[in-house]
Every structure is written in C-alpha cells, then in structure tokens.
Amino acid sequence: MKKLLEVNDLSVSFDTYGGEVQAVRGVSFELNEKETLAIVGESGSGKSVTAQSLMQLIPMPPGKFVGGSIMFEGEDLTGKSEKQMQRIRGKEISMIFQDPMTSLNPTMTIGNQIGEGLIKHQNLSKKEAHNRAIELLELVGIPNPEARVKQYPHQFSGGMRQRAMIAIALACNPKVLIADEPTTALDVTIQAQIMDLMRDLQDKTNTAIILITHDLGVVANAASRVVVMYGGKIVETGKVDEIFYNPKHPYTWGLLGSMPKIENKDEELQSIPGSPPDLSDPPKGCPFVSRCPYAMEVCKNHMPEYTDVSNTQKTACWLTDERAPKVEIPKSAVVGGAKIHG
Amino acid sequence: MAKYLVKRIGFIIVSLFLIITITFFLMQAAPGGPFASERALPPAIEEQMNEAYGLNDPLHVQYFDYLLSAITFDFGPSFKYAGQEVTDIIKRSFPYSLILGLEAIFIALSIGVLLGVIAALKHNRFGDYTAMVIAVLGISVPSFIMATILQYIFSIQLSVLPVARFESFAHSILPAVALATTPLAFIARLMRSSMLEVLNSDYIKTAKSKGLSQRVVTYKHGIRNAILPVISYLGPLVVSILTGSFVIEKIFGIPGLGSEFVESVTNRDYTIIMGTTVFFSLLLLFSILIVDLIYGLVDPRIKVARSGGEK
C-alpha cells in the first residue's frame, strides 16, 4: 500500500481574546491509497481542525500552523501559498461538510455548483461541465438528474443535498476525500444510504477517505483504520478490529462504553463523566487525566509516549507501562458479536 | 406570474384609496383654507371663490369629486397659481426630482455596497475602520449640513462645480451627493454585517474547498447572498430619497416636485396636495412592487409567482 498523505507532529493554534487555544497538539498519522481512515473523538477534540488544516481551510488569522508538516505526494502542504493550495483543493483533496442544509449556496443551481470546480480544474466549457454535472448527479443516485441539475438547494431534501455535496467533492476525481461528519445532520435511514453511497463510490473511484465522526457505528461499518483523538492529541490508533476488540486507552473504553448496545437495552446509556480540557491552558500530562477513572500521579505531569500494542496499533497511556497496575477492560467497553472484518 | 401581478396591483389600488381618503380628511381637518392670507379678501369675493372651486359643497360631495379626479388623474387647476393645471406642475417639476433621485440612488448603492464589501473583507483591519468611520459620519451628519459643506468646498473654495440651480449634469452632482450620503452610509453598514455573516457561512467554505480563488468566492458566492438585505431596503430608500429631497431642492434652488409638495401643504393648495400625494403614493407603491420582483430574481427561494405553493 502506498502512502498518500502523511501528517507529522501537526500543531494548530487559534489566537483568541482569551489567549492562544491549542486546538491540535502534535498529531501524526498517515493515509494510504484507497483506504478509509476514521478520526473519532468528541466535540472539541481537534478532529475537524485537523481535517480543515489539511486543506488550509482554517482562517488565518486567527488560526496558525505552530509546527509539523503535511506531506502529500512528497510535498509539504504547510508551506504552500494560497494560489498553490487552490490547485490542490477540489482537484487532489476535497471535502464534504457536516450540515448539507447550509453547505450549499442557496442562490446558485446545483448544476453550477458542481460545474464550478470542473471548469476551474479540468478546463471544461460550461456546456461540458453541465453534462458532467448530470452524470455526477446520476452517479450519486439522484433520480431525474436532467431536471435536478437546474434546481436550487432549497428544492432538495437533506439526504439529496448531501448526495449533491458528494457529487461536488468527487467531481474532479480527487485522491483524498475528507468527510467531516457527513451523516451527523441526517436521520438514521438516510445516514446508512449516504455511507453506502460513499463506500460504493470509493470502490469505483479508488479515492482514499478520511472520515471524521463521533459515531462509532459508522466507523465499524466504513473504516479500515481508526485514529482516536482527545484534547488535541491522538490517544490511540489502530485497525478497526483492534480499536473495537482490543482497545488499550481508557478514553477508547469510555467511547465504546457509551455506545448503545443491542444486548442490554434496559440499561441506562453510559457516559464519560466530566468535560474535555480547556485547550487554551492544556494539561501538562495526559489530556484525559481529569476524567480517567484509572488516573495515576504520573499522568498529571507527564504525557505518556506511544506504546506499540501491535504493528498497527499504538496507544498513549501510562497503563501500558510495566510499572502500572494491571487494569482489565471494563465490561461496558467489550463489544459483542462477530468480528467486523473477517 | 400574471395572477401575482394582478393581486399586487389590486393591493396598490386599495392602498391608494386609503391614502387618498386619509389625506382628504386630514386636509379638511386642518384649519384655514387656500384663500386665507395675511391680507384678508373681502367676504363676498372669498365666498365667490369658494363657490367657484366647489368648496361650499357638502363634505361628501367634495370627497367624491376628489375620488373622481384621482381616478381620472385630472386634479384640475391649482388654487394658488392661477391658470396652472396640477398635472402641468407635476410634469414640469418631476423630471428634476427623478434625475436627482436616480443619481442619488445610484451613488448610494454603488459606493455603499463597495464600502460594505471592503469593510467585511478587511474585517477589523484598517480598511474596515476607514469604511465604518465614513459610514458613521454619513449617518450622523444631516443632509442639509452636508449640502452646505459641499457647496462651500466645491463651489466657493474650489470653484469646480456650480453652487445651485439645475441646468446641466454638473449642477446635479452636489445635490445628488448630499442626498445620497445618509442612505449610502446605511447601505454600507447593512452590507458589511450581512457580508460578514455570509463569509462565515458553510457554503463559502464549500466554495473554497473547490479550489476557487478568493475573488470568485467573494463575488460569485458572497455578494449575491449578502446583497439581499440591501435590496429589501431599496423600497424604503426610494421613498425617503424622493420625498426627502425637499430640503436639498430648497438649498440648491432646484424646482423639483419635493418642494412643490411641501409648499402646497403650507399653501392649503388642495388640488396640488391631492395630486402630488396620489403621484408620490403611486410611485412608491410601484417601486416596492419592483423591489419585490427583483428580490425574487436574486433569491430563488422566494418565488413571487407562486404564492404559498411548493416549498
């Protein structure tokens, strides 16, 4: 498998009146060709900022790159000018946003919104772009595309708008598609359809997908690898099976525990008590220390190094240290049923 | 579309009827009459004049006479200026007000929108502050002070533009600028806040993520959405510019309809009051209709033709 994107020690901050907010603090991961990488974590964990900084969509100022690199096909994107980034956005890397109700321009036809990128990146004429837009709408499963292409976003339902967003994002056959919570704003039946569609299109176009979500159900179905983020840092990463069946980090346990399970439908839904750390004054040690039921003295002042659990799984937790007490995975975090991938 | 237009024109007729009725009774309620002046007329002559102009008829007869004259748009002769028909006065003076008003609207719109966009793009930086200082000045300085300042600088000190009267394009510049100042400032502020909101919206991010240049994102995706509140302000703007030009017309000695309108009220010149009121009302009601139609063109979510139909 070829590496497509490699993020090294990326740090992104925002200057605010309340001081510097360190939204992303030294994140490293890689994306291989044709795979789906899920980034999970709760609100404020830095997953969206990470994704948007890949495309330099963070407004600067107040945002700024503090350090690290984003290597895409051998070139560092952090050093690119705005003009150079414009040739990458939409053509090499494109993005789907969370809320399809607000992500489309209300005063422009769907066809023109799809066609814009094509005219810019592939030098198509207006007519060609229009025809290609019809093909793309058909590809994403919108019935009667010839009529739909001339319509405005308010004439589309939520699910159809997200399909149109996917058509916009895939218009120029990008190598990487970043999907920032693509199903969060949709209702459950539509969610499944959209995820099916994305998987289907991935098979056809061989696009690598970075899927940002807090829905572990979506992750289990769609992703091959998972990055778990908390407090601007990656706390655990691994293949999807490893994260679901052999998680090592208490935060991952908490996430898995707070997932509703079909076996115990009478039980109350679990949650992780407490709230995420204030990133304008991030904790010196592990960001999860204040909410972790297994927190030790060392966790308060020292950030744990990454420990290799396997070739593919890494975790940053002091519990993996040999001096730490042995802790079993809590029962709530044990995922039942058959393994997801074979 | 046709059905919508018919409906709207129906509303215009109803509004006009109400305006005419209210104006008529207000006019009657005000003390004095067209022939009251410092040098009192002999009672016999005043009686004869009242008789000749139909002012001795019972109120309801006068009212129906007015309604009839409004429908036929023939308001008869002026009470004050002997031998002049109301329609002639409107025909003579309206072109001045129209040219002045159109120029002022053009200035206010183009520069106001431009200032607002610049301010939004340079949010919290020098350009923003400059544009907003201009806007605050424009809103707080009354148009008659603006007019005299302009006259002082450009006519008296620099001698580049004529100080008053209305004979050529050069004559129209100063009054148009003075008239445009306040709405210009208002539009700039309106445009700035709506542009800021639009620039922070998700679809602007989508547009950027397609790799479009900053210029295309701003013009194609930003301004068209941000200009909507400005368009809805255009209706009241036309109102205020056309009726508010009275002061400016006075200062610059322009024989426009605004001054005609105000003078007719102090003169109790009933026919001119009626004529100008009906004329202005028609103008304003139609300009609001046109603004609504434009709104439907710019924003596809508003389908004027289909009232309460498909969502």
UniProtKB/TrEMBL annotation, chain A:
Q: Which InterPro entries match?
A: AAA+_ATPase, ABC_Ni/Peptide_Import, ABC_transporter-like_ATP-bd, ABC_transporter-like_CS, Oligopep_ABC_C, P-loop_NTPase
Q: Name one GO cellular component term.
A: plasma membrane
Coarsely, its chief localization is membrane
Keyword Thylakoid in annotation: no
Domain ABC transporter as annotated: residue spans:
5-256
> Do you know which Pfam families this protein is assigned to?
ABC_tran, oligo_HPY
**An MF annotation (GO) of this entry:** ATP hydrolysis activity
Q: Where in the cell is it found?
A: Cell membrane
Which superkingdom heads the taxonomic lineage of this protein's source?
Bacteria
BP GO annotations: peptide transport
The record gives the membrane topology as:
Peripheral membrane protein
Listed A to Z, the keywords are: ATP-binding, Cell membrane, Membrane, Nucleotide-binding, Transport
Q: Which PANTHER family match?
A: DIPEPTIDE TRANSPORT ATP-BINDING PROTEIN DPPD, OLIGOPEPTIDE TRANSPORT ATP-BINDING PROTEIN APPD
Family according to the record: Belongs to the ABC transporter superfamily.
Q: What's the protein here called?
A: Oligopeptide transport system ATP-binding protein
Native organism: Oceanobacillus limi
Automatic annotation (TrEMBL), chain B:
Where found?
Cell membrane
One GO biological process from the UniProt record?
Answer: transmembrane transport
Query: Residue limits of the ABC transmembrane type-1 domain?
Result: 94-295
GO CC annotation: what is one? Answer: plasma membrane
Q: Which UniProt keywords apply?
A: Cell membrane, Membrane, Transmembrane, Transmembrane helix, Transport
Lineage: superkingdom: Bacteria
Q: Which InterPro entries match?
A: BPD_transp_1_N, MetI-like, MetI-like_sf
Task: Give TM segment ranges.
Answer: 9-30, 98-121, 133-153, 173-191, 230-252, 272-298
Check the record and name the PROSITE patterns matching this protein.
ABC_TM1 (PS50928)
Task: List the SUPFAM superfamilies hit by this protein, alphabetically.
Answer: MetI-like
Q: How does it sit in the membrane?
A: Multi-pass membrane protein
The family annotation for this protein states:
Belongs to the binding-protein-dependent transport system permease family.
Name of the protein this chain belongs to: Oligopeptide transport system permease protein
What is the organism of origin for this protein?
Oceanobacillus limi
* Upper lineage: Bacteria, Bacillati, Bacillota, Bacilli, Bacillales
